[in-house]
Design a protein that fits this description.
This protein has about 190 residues and is of the alpha/beta class. It has 6 helices and 5 strands; from the N terminus they run E-E-H-E-H-H-E-E-H-H-H. Strands 3-2-1-4-5 form a 5-stranded mixed sheet, sandwiched between helices.
């Protein structure tokens, strides 16, 4: 049984947790999410999405979307990633997901150690925050499940890269397929693809 994550950083404040998925991939978008959870939540099994099985993530996604005060997901495509680099693309995705929220957060919790200030809203960066705070963990689960779903969809178009299995990460099979078939518009040309 995993330890229960902290429900908030600052009590009594509307807090949005932000995280992204797909930074280390060779193909596909980087996907970011922002989630505002109630201070009292029954989502006791929340954890860093990487520590959960696919089944657990998909079940939690439904529960998060039902119980969150607000949530949003943003996709940043490979063209933009190549243009501004993966770190800034990840941060842009978080900003775009925050832009979509109907409830304005009073504080933003960000997974990691880098963030560009969001207008008029203080933020706190938390290294490994997805294993510490419920709202960041929820954002990590949404970002991961939405991204995985997208990669499974484009797998149908380009099955030779095995995106259904590797989700665009640099596996032996994915890199071998790049060498054999070249790259697609979904690949990040600024990344070392060989």
């Amino acid at each position: 049984m995993s330890k229960r994550l902290a429900p908030y950083y600052t009590q009594g404040v509307v807090e949005a947790g932000c995280d992204e998925a797909g930074r280390g991939c060779l193909a596909g978008p980087v996907v970011a999410a922002a989630v505002i959870l109630p201070e009292e939540t029954s989502l006791t099994s929340l954890n860093d999405s990487k520590q959960l099985s696919e089944k657990q993530r998909n079940e939690l996604r439904i529960a998060i979307e039902e119980q969150a005060i607000d949530y949003a997901v943003a996709f940043i495509d490979p063209v933009k990633i190549d243009e501004i680099n993966i770190l800034w693309a990840s941060i842009l995705g978080m900003h775009e997901s925050l832009d979509q929220l109907k409830t304005r957060p009073e504080h933003i919790l960000v997974d990691g150690n880098k963030f560009k200030p969001y207008p008029f809203t203080p933020h706190t960066c938390v290294v490994k925050g997805d294993a510490k705070f419920a709202s960041i963990a929820a954002a990590s689960i949404l970002a991961k499940t939405y991204r995985d779903e997208f990669m499974e969809k484009i797998h149908e178009e380009f099955p030779m890269y095995d995106w259904k299995q590797n989700k665009g990460y640099p596996t032996v099979k994915h890199k071998g397929a790049i060498r054999e078939h070249g790259i697609t518009d979904y690949h990040r040309k600024s990344f070392k693809l060989g």
